């Protein structure tokens, strides 16, 4: 069994994807070109924002966003303590300071209440300026953007949406990657919309930021890439990946619908045995992960062992709160508050196989093995 069955997805759509790749090979143009342009238009339309700028990966996308927003020294950037490393990794790259914020016990997304407390404490300390929040759409569910936006407005801060896991999710009918002043996503193969290598994109309604990002991603270009008006980076989505994504976008919504059915079935079968994911009223998840919590880390070990013995892959996202990562120990002076919800989740969370090609028998098999391990 696969954790995310990218091979089955390819085989099902083989002819269309092969043709798309072939046409790029035959064109002889491997960087930029029509597929990239078309993809950016399609993605902007899909999300419902004015600009989409593709780039090399989701981490670069975040960095480009911070650069465009002019975030730098003496700025505090608030990030959830429970997320992939990238979300916070980019903050020191622009010389700003990440402040880790605890997450909501139900959604695992940044807690608006903890966020406001963290902002107030940074203001009281008086060393850093609270500049921006990076809210993550963790495991596919959009963050609590209406509550978070109220806070960023109150404190005159910028809001960035890390939609690497959330692409395709929504609040009501409003799509993920449309909530931040700037939003980013990743096309890493295992993400909801994945390509066959690395890829990423930045979304915004703001013309000026879009222009800056387009420049920063091509060596800080002015008129062209040989006219360099600022220090940038080299961050491109290549043409073959764009062609693949254009094909995959055609059946993307259908896949999200199926993943939602898979999640429903999991929850139905697991809700009395483990803590199943909670998707808040009005939210739709794109199910980057289906993550449950078991009683404790000992139980988790046992469940993983039983599942592995039965050829069922699992993942632990994430084992360690960001504030405990060795790389962030230099930030300790600003991060003395504990993040107890994150610490608890890290000790007991477990992600199960989640993709379109799981059928009801697979889910029955997986959930029975979990039940055997626990009960
Ligand atoms: C995957 C991921 C990223 C980074 O994406 P890459 O394309 O791997 O650089 C950033 N943030 C979150 C929350 C992610 O899950």
List keywords for this structure.
single chain; 375 residues; alpha/beta; Aspartate Aminotransferase, domain 1; 13 helices; globular
Give a description of the structure.
This protein is of the alpha/beta class and 375 residues long. It folds into two domains: 6-101 and 110-250, Aspartate Aminotransferase, domain 2 (3-Layer(aba) Sandwich); 252-374, Aspartate Aminotransferase, domain 1 (Alpha-Beta Complex). The chain has helices at residues 6-12, 14-27, 34-47, 58-68, 86-93, 112-125, 145-154, 207-216, 239-250, 252-270, 297-309, 340-348, 360-374; strands spanning 51-55, 75-80, 97-101, 129-136, 158-162, 170-171, 174-175, 182-186, 200-204, 283-284, 290-293, 349-352. Strands 1-9-8-5-4-2-3 form a seven-stranded mixed β-sheet, sandwiched between helices. 49% of the residues are buried. It binds pyridoxal-5'-phosphate. Pyridoxal-5'-phosphate binds at residues 57-59, 83-84, 86-87, 136, 162, 164-165, 186, 188, 198, 200.
